[in-house]
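[Automated response] Your request has been received and processed.

Submitted sequence:
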Amino acid sequence: MIPLADVDPALIEAVLDQAFEPERHKRTAYKVREGTQWLPNLSFAALDDEDMLAGTIQCWPVALTDAEGRAHPMIMVGPVAVLPHLQGEGFGKALMTASLTAIDPRAPLPQVLIGDPEYYERFFGFSNAHTAGWKLPGPFEQRRLLCRTANPAVLPQEGMLGPWRR
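Generated structure:
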């Protein structure tokens, strides 16, 4: 694992293009983090046995804005991108582990992602138990909107997820 900031941005984009469909920029997740920069301390790259780029993970500053207009900062995890021929070899799991363990335990913001609950709950503790009243700026499957936090009581029951702008 190396810091993603040490990787040429063109190589990062190439991995994302190969791991996802060409229309990936139109996905709702891109709208949620629009206008923000990924968080360097929580974003990593995985290298294969030949020290070639195998996959990447980016984390983003986002916020859930409640009905009163108060923004609750969160970390959006993903995309987790692994080259297609290397998927299933543990790179994605290693990237997720690196990113989640880099979060400062003294002030852990809730983490949110859009993904398969069966996988992300089992391995990383993400759940859709508290996200039923959350909205996103585009189409999404409600069951795939997942959150992970040490203190679920801090989560608003309703709100709109979008970019965190300080």
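Summary generated for your ticket: The longest strand covers residues 53-65. Residues 11 and 53 are 8 Å apart (CA to CA).
If you did not submit this request, please reply to this message.
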